[in-house]
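Hi support team,

I'm opening this ticket because the web form for multi-chain structure prediction keeps timing out on my end. I have pasted the exact lines I submitted so you can reproduce it. The total is 593 residues across two entries, so I didn't expect it to be a heavy job. Is there a limit I'm missing, or should I split the entries? Thanks in advance, R.K.
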Amino acid sequence: MDRSLRKRLEARFADRLTGPVRQRHDQTEIRIRPADVPEVMRELHDDPALGFEILADLAGVDTGTHMQVVYHLWSAGTPDWLRVVADGMPRDDPRIPTLTGLWPGAEWMERETYDMFGIIFEGNRDLRRIYMPPDYTSFPLRKDFYLPDDAARSPGGGVRHMEQTHTPTQATPSVVRRTAKA
Amino acid sequence: MTTTTPHQHPSADDPRVLLDDQVGAFEAVPPYPPRTEREAEFYSLGDGEMFLNMGPQHPSTHGVLRVVLKIDGERVVDLDPVLGYLHRGVEKLCETSDFHHIISQLDPLEYISSLFMEWAPVMAFEQLLDVQVPRRAEYIRVLTGELNRVASHALFQGWMALDLGGLTPILYSFIERDEIVEMLAAITGQRMLFNYFRVGGVNGDLNHEFMSRLGDWMSRATAQNQANIELLNDNEIFVRRMRGIGRLDRETALRMGTTGPNIRAAGVPFDIRRAHPYSVYPELEFDIPTRGHDGGGDSLDRYLLRLDEVKQSLRIIDQCLHNMPDGPVMARLPRLLRPRPGRAWAAVEAPRGLFGTYVISDGTDQPFRMKIHDPSFVNLQLVGLLMKGNLIADTMAVMASLDPVMGGIDK
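Hello R.K., no limit was hit. The queue was backed up. Here is the completed structure from your submission:
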């Protein structure tokens, strides 16, 4: 745990944090609004005092009640991983600005997150499905997508939900059995 | 009757099937309107350009990758990789498997360096559970992991030559890999999908067969490494087909999220073993080789860098054997793992770069969400940048030098 990083982040992003800076093991976590992502990331990357120049990971999360995008960053200036959680996107229309202007390598990671969760990265110029076939209509890692053999949790008692249409803009009323404070 | 009426199922022997009924799946241009700006731009042809479909069964794609090349004569203008032929939904499966079961789900991701696919998730689970791993287990992890790295890089060398048209080196690579794989089989019980690391330690201590095989191999490993280097490094065709091809500079490598040997060959000394130390790596002596200081690394630099890494891995293996402490190889843990709700991220330096895992626990014996970050997936994006303007034949040289494994890319 890097206490000085925590102080620096609190001082720098005070008005943009939506929760306390959390630290556990070798990770420091901040929470921001999705709209602030490009600006906060640019400061984290460009400011020599922070210097987070490597985007280690970009992950989508469906908490059951809303959507998140989670970024992990690495900097030579701190022994911690920095986790940036862009929190509070509605499940029926999750939208977040793209990060491809800063890290062009985020393009495929955003495509993957779109493919799996239906999160729309505004400004990504190649936001199409990457793993699933182009005519596929569901988003498999959403919590209302049940595996056919996961009958115990499925509201249809094991009926295959694979072909059910979920588009972020016209979402069907979804049944979510498992939620978490993520 | 020899004619085929429309309502009859056409025979595969009928030559007209090939003439006038082209199967859409094998056409380069997708049969649907473009979905994005980039797709529309890619699938519109300029003057003198044509599409060439490579894969998904092409042997140089290291698995089942399809690449649509837009070519002008012999030059590649642009390309569009099409993924997903190996997608198994591993992340979804992990959400319905318990923490012990997940380890075996992850082995087939990068099937030639499976131990690293187990290592990062196991580290993340240990953080969630606040487990202290015994020191002997950590040393065994490093020892077996570095052996796996040597095996993986040996195979890379053979593949690289195979993609450039040389058949001999892969035979030698497989000899070396086979020795290591048999050694690991003696300790893990499996040749490829080891399923060896456990939350809190490893499954089984070092045994006599492993140690005797390792001793035999170590006595000639350095000489073998030198022989592998001499086999190809002075080959003029091999060198000239790679030098100056696919040059990647430092800034692009950082911005593209590249990790592993590819970024170190571009002159950035980023190696998780030193950049964010884990396990017992801080106690071990080794260097981080880098190359490409004259304005970026080309395919040859990426190839040579992996040979440098093998030397460092041999150093680490040697130190592990000398410093191996006594003690248990498993922490005491309940059989059913139920971490408290929380989040954890762990990353290791796999042979292809940063392999990371982000786990969210909701207090049950299954993770609520498990994100797998695979280095090959991010590194493969580079082919789009590095290939432009090169010859079609060099596609293989560039792609092989990035060393992608489709099992990990497609998850």
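A quick check on our side: The CA atoms of residues 3 and 23 of chain A lie 9 Å apart. Let us know if the file doesn't open in your viewer.
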